């Protein structure tokens, strides 16, 4: 009964998912970057649009963000023909949300498709095989086209140098592609650490606001996301800091030019942290858990890698690459103040616990 908006980075599997739906439900697939499809939708002529739909009750509009006023067009079709189920996909939530947002208030529901979740990989290859190759997934990431490739380095290079940049580089707000690349590299080197906008701005010879604008754009195109600090009761908690993580660790490694396996890397802890935080967020999203995610740190340096909250419940995770660090203690001040329901230390030996309740 509502328009479905399906978000996700390019090449993450949106089209594949839609094609699978069409195998089970009769409908039509239309790619909005095709000129004929684009022009008919832009015409806003209902008769022409319905002819384009070929009387199908399930219509998939792929890469719908390229259509100006797509929100108005979807509203028009939905209101006049509520029996038609429309699924609109977009690789830039900024464009699709802005163009579809206001006209579709109360008329749409959204889903986000991420790179492969480890549960999907485990279901495909088995848990033991997954563990055997876990360092490879950390290094080359979990984009479907890379995971399935025999030459992962080449596939990662093809993907990241082309598709992942496409939406960002074509965006009207992007004045300086070279600066974007510099900001991305700076963020890639700071994974797992507090990000200082002023430090990056000073390093790159730009402004605090420019760096923030580019970070927000990178979030909207599903390249990175921010994790903010958790603060509620303690006076010595950080209250305005954030960390940046990459939705795909392979893309992060490609940016810094390092596809060495983790065992030989000095940044393996940060890489593992990024990987595990991603998986917890995917798990929450796909299971409709609706948690909020943070990190926690005090001014004295005590910290927790991942804080998960829902209603009044709190779960905490420490994320350590080496199983030898599985006996780490959580900060006493946090535990006594927030009384977390669960406390887990996630290592390579118990990675499955990141995708459990």
Total strand count, please?
A: 11
Q: Percent of residues in helical segments? A: 40-55%
Average pLDDT figure = 90
Which structural class should the secondary elements be placed in? alpha/beta
Radius of gyration: 22 Å
Q: Based on CA inertia axes, which overall geometry fits?
A: globular
* SSE succession: EHEHHEHEHEHHHHHHHHEEHHEEEHE
The main β sheet shows up as: 6 strands, mixed
Low-pLDDT regions? none
Count helical runs.
16
Q: Can you characterise this structure?
A:
With 357 residues, the chain is an alpha/beta fold. It has helices at 14-24, 35-43, 46-53, 70-80, 93-100, 118-125, 127-132, 134-140, 144-147, 152-169, 177-189, 197-204, 208-220, 249-255, 268-286, 332-338; strands at residues 3-7, 28-31, 58-62, 85-90, 108-112, 224-229, 242-246, 292-297, 303-310, 313-319, 342-346. The strands form two sheets. Strands 7-6-8-9-10-11 form a six-stranded mixed sheet, with helices on both faces. β8 (292-297) and β9 (303-310) form a beta hairpin. The two termini are 31 Å apart. 36% of the residues are buried. The model has no long low-confidence stretch (mean pLDDT 90).
């Amino acid at each position: 009964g509502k328009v479905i908006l399906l978000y996700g980075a390019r090449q993450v599997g949106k089209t594949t998912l839609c094609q699978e739906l069409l195998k089970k439900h009769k409908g039509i697939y239309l790619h909005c970057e095709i000129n004929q499809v684009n022009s008919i939708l832009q015409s806003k002529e209902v008769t022409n649009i319905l002819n384009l739909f070929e009387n199908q009750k399930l219509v998939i509009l792929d890469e719908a963000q390229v259509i100006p006023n797509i929100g108005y067009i979807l509203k028009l079709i939905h209101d006049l023909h509520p029996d038609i189920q429309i699924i609109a996909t977009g690789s830039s939530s900024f464009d699709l949300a802005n163009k579809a947002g206001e006209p579709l208030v109360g008329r749409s529901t959204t889903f986000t498709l991420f790179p492969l979740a480890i549960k999907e990989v485990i279901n495909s290859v088995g848990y033991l095989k997954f563990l055997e190759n876990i360092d490879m997934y950390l290094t080359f990431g979990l984009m479907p086209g890379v995971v399935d490739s025999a030459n992962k380095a080449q596939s990662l290079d093809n993907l990241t140098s082309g598709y992942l940049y496409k939406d960002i580089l074509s965006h009207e707000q992007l004045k300086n592609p070279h600066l974007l690349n510099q900001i991305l590299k700076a963020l890639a080197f700071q994974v797992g650490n507090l990000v200082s906008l002023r430090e990056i701005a000073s390093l790159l010879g730009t402004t605090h606001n420019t760096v923030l604008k580019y970070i927000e754009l990178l979030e909207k195109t599903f390249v990175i996301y921010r994790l903010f600090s958790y603060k509620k009761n303690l006076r010595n908690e950080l209250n305005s800091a954030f960390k940046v993580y990459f939705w795909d660790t392979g893309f992060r490694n490609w940016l810094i030019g390092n596809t060495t396996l983790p065992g030989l890397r000095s940044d393996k802890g940060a890489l593992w942290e990024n990987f595990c935080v991603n998986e917890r967020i995917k798990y929450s999203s796909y299971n409709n858990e609706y948690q909020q995610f943070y990190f926690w740190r005090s001014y004295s340096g005590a910290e927790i890698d991942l804080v998960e909250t829902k209603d009044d419940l709190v779960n905490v995770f420490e994320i350590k690459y080496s199983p030898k660090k599985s006996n780490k203690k959580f900060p006493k001040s946090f535990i006594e103040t927030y009384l977390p329901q669960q406390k887990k230390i996630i290592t390579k030996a118990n990675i499955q616990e990141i995708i459990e309740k």
